[in-house]
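Treating backbone geometry as a discrete language has practical consequences that deserve illustration. The amino acid sequence and the backbone structure tokens for this protein are reproduced below.
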Amino acid sequence: MDVLIIAIGYLLGSIPFGLIVGKKFYGIDLREHGSNNTGATNAFRVLGPKAALLVGVPDMLKGLLAVYFAQLFSANPLIMVVAGIAAICGHNWSMWMKFKGGRGVATSVGVLLMLAPKVVGVVLIVFIILVGLTRYVSLGSITGGVLVPFLMWYFNYPLEIKIFGIVVAIFIVLRHRANIKRLLSGTENKVKPGNAKRKN
């Protein structure tokens, strides 16, 4: 049963909402535009705020539902954590996109909403402040990700969730390697909404 729960987590995470929204409603493959990423940030940059919402909210729900199902069918906190990690892996390495995908930020937030809601509140505030001041979404995402394990320890969550916090931080930093290089060189793109029109 535990293996099935984890598999469901991965399958949920694998649903490529960015690809679906871009192609279905705008006739655009996000993998060929902007940062070539299928996440909400690139949807915002290429397609605009509405598209970003249509991508970001379902991406977040993937992580939330993966942990919710694990909680529903297993009393083991470790299985909840692993199901959450599986959802993030599914988003980052989707089976429907030749094991490529997004950077896992929104899906990680969904998992954290189930496992450590206090952490999400603090990270969200930091994210909004940083992006508002700098216009660099990547900087807000990386900083928020790095803060997660420290906040886990501060709020004294169970060990399994603290370990998950470390995994999330590592995933987010690794998935943003190119962004970190551009931030250090001063060539990172500041976020501004796209204006692609929806298909009739």
In short: The first helix runs from residue 2 to 14. The chain has a mean pLDDT of 92. The radius of gyration is 16 Å.
